[in-house]
Amino acid sequence: MSDALFRSLDVIEPGALVVYHGSIGSHHGLWLALPCLCLNCARADELGVPDCRFMLIDPWGELSGPHHVRRESITRSSACV
Ligand SMILES: [Zn+2]
How many domains is the chain partitioned into structurally? Predict the structure, then answer.
């Protein structure tokens, strides 16, 4: 199994430390990820957006948030917590 394929199958557990690398450059970095069930994300599901949405929380509480991102925008961090 290739590395990339393995990573694409990687499961994000609730509360996992993840790296955000999506379109919002100022948010790149480490976050805590939780599955998001807010109205906006539920709405995205209804509209047929296939990605499972995640809520990003700043582990240090210094940045605004939470932010709602697509699964493909985050990767589980290899750093241990
Ligand atoms: Zn949401």
Answer: 1
Ligand 1 centroid to residue 66 C-alpha, Å: 8
Strands (E), 1-81: 16-20, 29-35, 53-57, 67-70, 74-76
Q: What global pTM score does this model have?
A: 0.72
Distance from Cα 20 to the centre of ligand 1, integer Å: 15
Give the integer Cα–Cα distance in Å for 71 and 67: 12
4-16 confidence digits (pLDDT tens): 555 555 678 899 9
Residue ranges making up the domain that contains 43: 3-76
Distance (angstroms) between ligand 1 centre and the Cα of 57 equals: 11
CA–centroid distance, 8 to ligand 1, in Å, is: 22
